[in-house]
Amino acid sequence: MATNRRYDYVVLGSGIAGLTFALNVAEKGSVALITKKNRADSNTNYAQGGIACVTSDEDTFDLHVRDTLECGAGLCREDVVRGIVEEGPARIRELIKLGMSFSERENGRAHELDLGKEGGHSKRRILHAKDVTGREIETALLTALALHPNVELFENHAAIDLITRRKLGFSTENRCLGVYVLDVESGQVETFAAGHVLLATGGCGKVYLYTTNPSIATGDGVAMAYRAGVPVANMEFIQFHPTCLFHPKAQSFLISEAVRGEGGILRNGAGRAFMDEVHPLKSLAPRDIVARAIDAEIKKTGAECVYLDITHQSREFLQKRFPAIYAKCLECGIDMALQPIPVVPSAHYQCGGVVTAPDGRTELRGLWAVGEVACTGLHGANRLASNSLLEALVVAHRAAEAVKEEKAPPRQKNIPQWESGSAQDPDELVVIYHNWREIRQLMWDYVGIVRTTKRLQRAASRLRSLSSEVQDYYWNYKITCDLVELRNLVLVASLIVDCALSRHESRGLHFTLDYPELDESHPPSDTVLRPG
Ligand code: SIN
Question: What is the pLDDT averaged over residues 451-476?
Answer without folding.
Answer: 95
